[in-house]
Amino acid sequence: MVMIEVVIAEDQTLLRDALATLLGLESDIAVVGLAADGREAHALVRRHKPDVLLTDIEMPDMTGLELAALMRREDMATRVLIVTTFDRPGYLRRAMEAGVAGFVLKDGPSADLAGAIRRIAGGERVIAPELAARAWDEADPLSDAERRLLRLAEAGLDSNAIAEASGLARGTVRNYLHSAIGKLGATNRIEAARIARQKGWL
Does residue 27 lie in a domain region? Predict the structure, then answer.
């Protein structure tokens, strides 16, 4: 029997351990690493070269989408399966653009998750059907820089702190945020961040 090797990246310890236990019951799936954040997951994937990385979207240091994009740039053979509670089409669209092989929701049956891992390891793409039809309804208008600065604004940082954290000049920060606010039809940076978060663009 050919074993499918999996690394799990999930910042919630209880859920991470539960996923590992569930998948450990499958005779053809072996969990070879557990990560609590995106950077740890990246290191584990480089070390173990698993068939599949099962990852959440929202994680410290590096999101699952940022991790998938990094793995694509590095031409890693490991295929990525996003498992999330967020059913926002914007997330799915960004995941597809990052080269993710699968996107499923956490409230699905455990047997479906194991099946998705097998299909992805076999070269297929697996998308939650309730998301697939809506994925391309509304394009993400934000640039990567605008998205990064909106996250900092969402965290409550003022312009000086955002400039320091991003390594950009205050004027550049102001221009990027002004552009993002205009694209989203918001009145300020906090509202822009809220809109972008609701649509799955952050």
Answer: yes
- The answer on 164 and 100 residing in a single domain is no
Residue 158: give the domain boundaries. 144-198
pLDDT above 80 (res 139): no
Judging by DSSP bridges, how do beta strands 29-35 and 79-84 pair with one another?
A: unpaired
DSSP per-residue codes, 111-132: HHHHHHHHHHHTT--EE-HHHH
Q: What is the mean pLDDT of the chain?
A: 89
Residue 160 confidence (pLDDT) above 80:
yes
Kindly state whether residues 54 and 98 are assigned to the same domain: yes
* pLDDT given at position 136: 54
**Does any domain span residue 24?**
yes
* Tally of structural domains, the chain: 2
Alpha helices (H) along the chain: 13-24, 38-48, 64-73, 89-97, 110-121, 129-132, 144-154, 159-166, 170-184, 189-198
Name the one residue in this structure whose structure tokens are 């697996």: 126
The string over 140-165, giving b where at least 16 C-beta atoms fall within 10 Å of a residue's C-beta and e elsewhere, is bebeebbbbbbbbbbeebebeebbee
Can you give the CATH number for the domain in which 47 is found?
3.40.50.2300
Within this chain, do residues 52 and 152 fall inside the same structural domain, yes or no?
no
Check whether 110 has a pLDDT greater than 60: yes
- Alpha-carbon distance of 5 to 28, in angstroms, equals 9
β-partners of residue 33 are: 7
DSSP 157: -
Whether residues 24 and 67 share a domain: the answer is yes
